[in-house]
Amino acid sequence: MKDIPVLKIGDLEICPPIIQGGMGVKVSRAGLAAAVANEGCAGVIASVGLGMDVKIPGMTIGDTAVEFLRREIRKAKEMSKGPIGVNIMYALTHYGILVKAAVEENADFIISGAGLPLDLPKYLSPGSRTKLIPVVSSARALQVICKRWARFNKQPDAVIVEGPLAGGHLGYSHDSVNGENSEKLEDIIKGVIEYANTCEPRIPVIAAGGIFDGADIAHFLKLGASGVQMATRFVCTTECDAHDNFKQAYINAKEEDITIIKSPVGLPGRVIRNDFVNRLQHGERLPFRCEYKCLWTCDPEKSPYCIARVLGDAADGYMQDAFAFAGANAYRCNEIISVKELVTKLVAEMHAAQD
Questions:
Q1: Superfamily (CATH H level) for 7-242+333-354
Q2: SS3 of 20, please?
Q3: Where in the chain is the domain with CATH 3.20.20.70?
Q4: Average pLDDT of the segment spanning 176-201
């Protein structure tokens, strides 16, 4: 694409330089990931919650999650020859076996955040071409990861810097994502780029969190980022794996509907306000028996509701007792279009911003 830079991660070439963010539970699976990869970008499958509603005789919950992840990777690769990655949160109870499965299925890359993935390289098999991409919120976090990964003779193939405008669980304090004290991605990413440029080879830096249009992409490329990650914008596409009711929550949202809640896992989370969110904020609880044990950061005895169940129901369209995670700009979504149309639009906006 003329004048559009290529995001190079090892031998992967991504153009336009956009990674579709992994969205769980069950929002970004093979359908969305493959459609994105077919447009030259990189598609991402979110591993959290896969197979959560299925019980396979003789298989544990962890084994079931692995089996469904394998199926999604294979399906996406059958549908696309472009880059297909997997987002595997460090906080997942079954983290290790999910990473191993992704490597065995030859995922092009693994994105890992929700904690510092300090031992991620140990899961690589000899000769594996799977790229490892941690998610950080500071230059200090990247330095810590690089120091630890040096024990494995490995450094990140790229790094994603996620700012406080992202959707879902956020790696920031409640105060730093809400109000005047909120940090800016532009400020955070500068220090990360400075450190990444000192590494040999240089680590590509990918900006994430609140990036909505082509002008935003051009802005962060100008600041020195090698590419961007976008999640919220891909929800309102025909190929997104979530139910139409989930997508409609984005279309119907107003700016004042985007709010921060305290998730049962102890992190702030950005959601679209609805009746269920209002009920939670007034102290309502949804008693449950934990079947998944999906996050080691979650204490079922103290949780007012099961976050996995709520997010899974939302993705399936049952919004009565659920909510949609969303980025700060979700209210700007006003139409459902194909991935191809969206990427074409983003590229045109990038060109316009460069003129």
A1: Aldolase class I (3.20.20.70)
A2: strand
A3: 7-242+333-354
A4: 88
